[in-house]
Amino acid sequence: MTAGLPTAASAAPLAAAAADQPWRDRRKSAARRADALLNAMTFEEQVTLVTAVEVADFKPLEHLGIPAMTRVDASDGLRGDTGVTAFPAPNALAATFDTELAEEYGDAIGVEARGKGWNVLLGPTVDIDRNPRNGRESESYGEDPLVNGLIGAAVTRGFQKNDVIAQVKHFTVYNQEDGRNTLDVVVSERALRELYYPAFEHTIRDGGALSIMGSYPKVNGVFACEDPHIIGALKNDLGLKGYLGTDYYPYGDRVKEINAGVDSAALIPDTPKDAFTDGRIPKERTRDAAGRILYALFASGAYDNPLPSAPAEVVTTDAHQALARITGERATVLLKNKGGLLPLSKKKTIAVIGPAGKDAMTGVEGSSYVDPGDFTTAVDAITAKAGAARVLFSQGTLGDVALPTIPGAVFTTPDGQPGLHAEFFAGEDLSGTPLTTTTASNIDFRWGNPVGGLPAKWSARWTGRITPPTTGLVRFSTLLAGAAKIVVDGVTVLDESRFIWDSFFGPKESAIGGVTGLVGGRPVDITVEYSTKDAGFYGPSMKLCWQPDSLIPAAVATAKQADVAVVFVNNYSGEAFDRDDLSLPGDQNQLVEAVAAANPNTVVVLNTSGPMLMPWLGQVKGVLQAWYQGAATGTSIANILYGDAEPGGRLPVTFPADERQGPTTYTGGKNDFANGSITYDEGIYVGYKWYDKHRAQPLFPFGHGLSYTSFSHDRPRVYSRGRGDEAAEVSVEVRNAGRRTGSDVVQVYIGQLPTTVDTPARTLAGFARVELAPGQRRTVRVTVSRRALSYWDEAKSRWVTPTGKVPVYVGRSAAEVTYAGSITVK
């Protein structure tokens, strides 16, 4: 949610400091200036500051020099604006393991935000990627708290270089979309302290974050924004001097939220003003909240540096577009490269197959979707390098998109009439005598009931026969708000539910479904069941859709004509719903398998939100994880494919080998008012720590990434320190042993701590990215903090650092490490 722009008058230069307005004196600290202004404000003005939402709400504060606070979602660019830079998604940035690049990324977004008239940036997002089915997994920096924290802190520093406030999302345990507004997360205090809090602490202490956004869920039975214990930890233990705001319209009680420690009601315009004057909210709490907002305005520079009087039409620059491309290149992870097929020769013919044009996924949908503008597509970028004569294109698959509604002409009822036989029932379990029986031409209703007279909860069954026009794979899908099951010719192609099918902001819609093989002209039975279970606030909805003519045969024919085939595949991901499984949607797995059978030199480019299962992995020679790359979607991948850039990324998340791996998956209600719950019974064991704990073999481990060159790690050394929070320094000599310039990410892990308390077999304690020319050597040094050698003692409510020796490992992934020595903790 964003407010409008300030007027020219409100954006006018602030007056010079006067004797009766000491808060304008820039020589004083932000804290002193905030106190001085707070003392000059009336109580009514303090309430106005705490509750202001729109620009007009700040008008009564204008005489004090307080600027209107204008807010924009900004995790990977400016959501809702045009003429901006769509940067690669945050988890792509995390894959660079490059904090310097992350700060540049944040700085560029901050520059563009001021140009567009925004001074509060809602981001970065540092939520732990607990489960890769999370619809918003690509908005944060992966599964590890240190990577989240260091990358998040760097982006925050970049933002706030530009006289804006960074509001870091979402405190805390916001790890899924299904049922998010009323979800109860049952989680241990130790897991909160060791896993879910540290990234926020890094953004505050290392990044200087001046605001934090609270999260939707309950934590152990209490909404996060109503819990004084959680908010107290944020302000007292993690060090927040600025203010805590809420997300947009959280469920819960507004008065309880502010009394618990929420300082800004900017995204919740229903906060009752009379609660500040009738005794429900103490005046001391109001004063503290207003003071924290003032501190953020002074410390950020937003108070002293007014926004432009009018937003610029275009704020993206050639430099920012180049930064997006460089980020995309450094983020791309080379997962497999059998026989050194990559990089490709520009003299070879290449079959480009799949959504490689404007149909590519450029970003996560929802609050972080950024308009990429007229970006260069992958097929165009490849053609520019190889020449039109050497590039053959075939669509192969439509990818993860909404399909056309099935026309009524292909249906017949069980008694041979046009359409489908439809029965509607009271309740959601298809039981009892039907309330209504009718014939439907097709299934297509949105935000309401398909027939009149239905109760609030209902179910329906459509039966009949469907006749496909051609022989081959037929793709069925649905746009859905509710629960549905589709059975075609005895094959269940869908049995799932959805809250809504649109992630609020963004051009695409989320379809779910499956494929089955059918014979053209031969009618087969079809049964569709629907219920209002899980339908969201817009109401029940369903469109039954299909793609009757497979594009795979034409793609196979194209692949056979080329020296190499590059198959692009994708998935839609976004706010308001989670993925139901880890499979590529639709017919994309079948496409990859068919192309790989036709061309032995097949490379797959994963234009996806995160981990995917790869049943075809053994059949292809190359796999690139490209993530969502915004405006760089085509240029960076073409550069990687042809070796004009190196795939510099390393996985910030573990890729599971099957659906059963990883922490528990939520199975409760999916709509906002479901009041579901999930227990984080894995405790601190998320991501690679879960795999170590359960001795499970992932498809690809955390930190994994190949290169077009090779590196050696020599002379690892561990030097115990004991100065302040610095426990040790780990050094290793990195040598580029190959023939190409390339980059390596040195990863330092510590082993189990010397205590009887259960601690992880490996914990990332530091990392460093290094770029080397062929034959070049460099000694890389990584500092290990004392906190990394500690655990949270729930009984004593404090950090404990056991004494003794702690093993240290250096490697290229969580699964590929070498013992480097030990840290002696005294």
Structural write-up:
It is built from 16 helices and 34 strands. With 826 residues, the chain is an alpha/beta fold. It has 4 domains: 279 residues, TIM Barrel (Alpha-Beta Barrel), CATH 3.20.20; 224 residues, Glycoside hydrolase family 3 C-terminal domain (Rossmann fold, 3-Layer(aba) Sandwich); 140 residues, Galactose-binding domain-like (Jelly Rolls, Sandwich), CATH 2.60.120; 115 residues, Immunoglobulins (Immunoglobulin-like). The relative contact order is 0.12.
Annotated CATH topology of the largest domain = TIM Barrel
The total beta strand count reads 34
Look at the helices and sheets and give the structural class. Answer: alpha/beta
Distance between the termini: 50 Å
Rg is 28 Å
Number of distinct helices: 16
Total count of domains: 4
How much strand? 25-35%
Which residues sit in consecutive blocks of at least 5 with pLDDT less than 50?
1-16
State the CATH architecture of the largest domain.
Alpha-Beta Barrel
The CATH fourth-level homologous superfamily of the largest domain: Glycoside hydrolase, family 3, N-terminal domain
Write the layout of secondary structure elements.
Blueprint: H1 30-40, H2 43-51, E1 71-73, H3 90-95, H4 99-116, E2 120-125, H5 145-160, E3 165-171, E4 184-186, H6 189-196, H7 198-205, E5 211-214, E6 218-219, E7 222-223, H8 228-237, E8 243-245, H9 254-260, H10 283-300, H11 318-331, E9 333-337, E10 350-353, H12 378-386, E11 391-394, E12 411-412, E13 420-426, E14 436-440, E15 444-445, E16 458-466, E17 472-488, E18 491-498, E19 512-518, E20 524-531, E21 541-547, H13 552-560, E22 564-570, H14 588-598, E23 602-607, E24 622-625, H15 635-641, E25 677-679, H16 688-693, E26 711-723, E27 726-736, E28 742-750, E29 763-772, E30 777-785, E31 791-793, E32 798-800, E33 804-813, E34 816-825
Parallel strand pairs: 1-2, 2-3, 3-5, 4-6, 4-25, 5-8, 10-11, 10-22, 22-23, 23-24
Antiparallel strand pairs: 6-7, 9-24, 12-16, 13-14, 13-16, 15-21, 16-20, 17-18, 17-19, 17-20, 17-21, 26-27, 27-30, 28-29, 28-33, 31-32, 33-34
